Amino acid sequence: FANLKADVLERKCNECHYSGNATDLPPFETYRDFLEKADGTRFRVFGLWGDGRPVSEDDVMPPEEAPALTDGDKARLLLWYSDGKRDGTEAPKPLPPGRPGSSGGGA
Question: Is the pTM of this model over 0.85?
Answer without folding.
Answer: no
